[in-house]
Amino acid sequence: MVVITLQRNKCIGCNYCVELAPNQFQMSKKDGKSVLLHSKDKKGFFTLKSNEEHIFDDCDKASKACPVKIISVKSV
Question: Which secondary-structure segment (H or E) carries 20?
Fold first, then answer.
């Protein structure tokens, strides 16, 4: 299982996550910040738990490219 977490309120809208993992992230037209698709919000932390192991690599690249380090990716 892959667990991805996005701390959305700290997003600066650089778009790296969307470029590297377009199936998991998109930019909000309202505020220009990243949205983790199909995630659940818990106090500003958006979390997605997925059994699709193939998404790990792209999301890990997005996490490493994020200039404000607000994306966490774990394989559990």
Answer: helix 16-20
Q: What is the pLDDT of residues 28-44, one digit of tens each?
A: 999 999 999 999 999 99
Angle at 9 between CA 5 and CA 14, to 5 degrees: 85
- Amino acid identity at 54: H
Rounded distance between C-alpha atoms, residue 27 and residue 5, angstroms = 16
Whole-angstrom distance, CA of residue 42 vs CA of residue 53: 23
Q: What pLDDT, on a 0 to 100 scale, did the predictor assign at position 57?
A: 97
Q: Are the beta carbons of 55 and 24 closer than 8 angstroms? A: yes
- Locate 20 and state its tokens: 């590297």
Burial class (CB within 10 angstroms; exposed 0-12, middle 13-18, buried 19+) of 44: exposed
Which token pair is 75? 């394989």
